[in-house]
Design a protein that fits this description.
With 638 residues, the chain is α+β, with helices and mostly antiparallel strands. It has nine helices and 38 strands. 17% of the residues lie in helices and 40% in strands. The model is unreliable at 1-20 (pLDDT under 50).
Length: 638
């Protein structure tokens, strides 16, 4: 493979020297790059130069044409920095659609603020960025920066298209390495694109041009599954002055244990005695683990400390014990130390926390993750503890850290493990509703709902809202019910199982349509989620459903006393690879009252299917939506 260094570096330095003389009229963009795009990267050039194990420079020139309001979030004209990262140069130019300069930003013109959030006690992390409100679209932002970093454990990936709806005219990535430190790299999804590259033991160069935007499709996989990506790491590195060497997860985990965790678990004799007394009557080890977890929840609170290496190194257990607070690292390490004081082993686990499922990459060892939880092996079970939450139940992860690969940090090295996966039957929402309806369609209803699995974690925080906020929450959820009034709200958080119970009393009007002497009565008092999918005859990506769910509904409609049933829909069952749906409708007289009783169940399976299966999934959901929206016909009599 020929070396492209001359072309890359000549183009890169030419752009830095003459960037503000260059023009980017929108008229020069190839028409194909507009399709499905909210923004177009005109030129993205990154040069990383490693001059020592603890020093590197990152030079960037990024020019983005923004086509609409949604494209503004794809500009990325700013830098995050701290005491370990220095911004040497920073400037930007705003250009109109004809290539004329509108506004120029020098370094002093950039906005600068702390990254401290409400839960962060102290942090040296800051962000420097441009603040620009466009008057007209399209417009172009040209951003230039040079940054010096002393932590070389983080090497920026080459990820030219890191978002849907983003096109690329040109992207160049260069890793220069005069320090001659051996590198590792992992290429993904390059073969399907025309990419020039040069790779060696110490240097990398990549060039790609003309990448049309990827269209977002419902139930699409994450963009890293198919977009070009090169991950890079040094075999010898520095993290805030702490040097290390690693080529795989075993070695990197060992380095993290030795340099970030070891000797952080000391506790005072008084605390050890307190924990021993707390657990001495426990019937088994599992109960001891639960008692210690509850002790942490009751005696500490979450406060983030992100100062220097504190962004990666936990506070000592003794310090957390004294202060009664810590971040995810400190509280997890503290819980680990309390367990260890009773001879219960556990493992610090690094994870990507978030609603989107994201794995630690088991193929490529690098400094990853944004959160820490605790793994406690017990017999044949893996217990997972979310140590930052004062309300999360024992051994419950929920949708923030479920079903993903994490890194266990052990004294003998790192190990990749998967967290708990909640099955569709685990993720159950069960609802029972009794609705009394009069001749005009006015109704009173009593609702009882129980939520398990991931839905439990999503709903139980509602119980902490004030009355007004709770009412707003339910009025939004039941927005299809007219003139809804919330008469009563009761919540029960069954922390031990766990499940969350909601009991509501509500009223409203016009439930159904009155046509002369007939009442057209809808049979879906509560709506099922995500059933209207757009048509996609030329689907490109495979279909992925990351979490399955189950719904069981029991609706009891008490009809006006003087009424006669004229029509009810047929009972129906649908079963296929995507899940199942069942609806059964029965007319009955109970204690002199005319009733319609509706039993409805819906299961959506998780899984992956080829793109051609999308229309079948769409038909499945359309059928469910249609069947759920059926109406009974009631004749009103005098």
């Amino acid at each position: 493979m020929r070396k492209i260094s001359f072309l890359v570096l000549l183009g890169f330095f030419t752009s830095l020297l003459t960037a503000q003389e260059r023009s980017y009229p929108v008229s020069t963009i190839d028409n194909s790059l507009f399709e499905n795009a909210n923004a177009i990267i005109r030129n993205d050039e990154i040069e990383i130069e490693v001059t020592a194990i603890n020093k590197m420079f990152i030079r960037t020139e990024r020019t983005v044409t923004v086509l609409n309001e949604l494209g503004e979030e794809l500009i990325w004209a700013g830098e995050v920095y701290d005491d370990d990262i220095k911004i040497k140069k920073q400037e930007a130019v705003i250009i109109d659609q004809d290539g004329n300069e509108i506004k120029k930003f020098k370094k002093k013109d950039f906005q600068d603020r702390s990254l401290v959030t409400g839960a962060t006690l102290i942090s040296d992390a800051r962000i420097s960025y441009i603040d620009y409100s466009p008057k007209v679209y399209p417009f172009t932002v040209q951003y230039i920066s040079e940054v010096q970093a002393e932590s070389t454990i983080f090497i920026k990936d080459w990820f030219p298209v890191n978002s849907y709806s983003l096109s690329v005219e040109k992207s160049i990535y260069t890793l220069r390495n005069p320090a001659k430190i051996p590198i590792r790299f992992l290429e993904k999804n390059l073969s399907s694109h025309k990419i020039e590259k040069f790779t060696s033991e110490f240097e990398l160069e990549y060039l790609v041009e003309h990448l049309p935007a990827y269209k977002f499709e419902k139930f699409s996989p994450g963009i890293k599954e198919f977009a070009p990506l090169v991950k890079v790491a040094l075999n010898q590195f520095s993290l805030v002055g702490v040097k290390g060497q690693a080529e795989n997860w075993t070695q990197l985990g060992k380095w993290q244990y030795d340099n970030l965790l070891d000797k952080k678990m000391e506790l005072s004799p008084e605390t050890v005695r307190k924990v021993k007394d707390l657990t001495e009557n426990a019937t088994d080890v599992r109960e001891k683990i639960k008692l210690i977890y509850n002790y942490v929840q009751e005696n500490t609170r979450y406060v983030s400390v992100q100062l220097g290496i504190g962004g990666w190194e936990p506070m000592s257990a003794d310090e957390v014990d004294h202060l009664k607070y810590g971040d995810c690292k400190g509280l997890t390490n503290y819980t680990k130390a309390l367990l260890a004081s009773q001879n219960i082993p556990s493992y610090y686990a690094v994870v990507y926390g978030g609603r989107e499922l994201k794995d630690i990459d088991e193929e490529f060892a690098s400094m990853e993750g944004n959160h820490v939880i605790l793994n406690v092996p017990y017999e044949r079970e893996n217990i997972w503890l979310e140590c930052t939450s004062q309300t999360s139940p024992f051994n419950y992860l929920g949708g923030f850290t479920d079903n993903r690969k994490v890194l266990l940090i052990k004294s003998d090295g790192g190990e990749i493990m998967e967290t708990t996966k909640y099955t569709p039957s685990d993720n159950l929402t069960e609802t029972k509703i009794s609705v009394t309806i009069d001749e005009t369609g006015n109704f009173n209803a009593q609702l009882h709902r129980e939520s398990f699995g991931v839905p439990y974690g999503l709903i139980y925080p509602v119980s902490d809202l004030d009355r007004s906020s709770k009412e707003l929450y339910y009025k939004k959820e039941f927005g299809h019910l007219k003139n809804l009034k919330i008469k009563e709200i009761n919540h029960t958080n069954d922390y031990l199982h766990p499940k969350f119970l909601e009991d509501l009393k509500v009223s409203g009007s016009k439930y159904g349509s009155v046509l002369g002497k007939r009442l057209l009565l809808p049979l879906n008092f509560t709506n099922l989620p995500a059933l209207n999918l757009p048509r996609s005859s030329n689907r490109e990506r495979q279909v992925e459903i990351n979490r399955g769910f189950s719904y069981k509904d029991h609706f009891q409609f008490i009809l006006p006393g003087s009424s006669i049933l004229e029509f009810i829909p047929n009972n129906t069952i649908i079963e296929n690879e995507f899940g199942s749906f069942r609806i059964e409708i029965e007319y009955a007289q109970v204690d002199g009252q005319n009733m319609l009783i509706v039993e409805r169940s819906y299961v959506l399976q998780d899984g992956k299917w080829p793109a051609k299966k999308y229309e079948e999934l769409r038909d499945f959901m359309l059928n469910i939506n249609s069947l759920s929206n059926q109406k009974a016909v009631i004749v009103l009599t005098d």
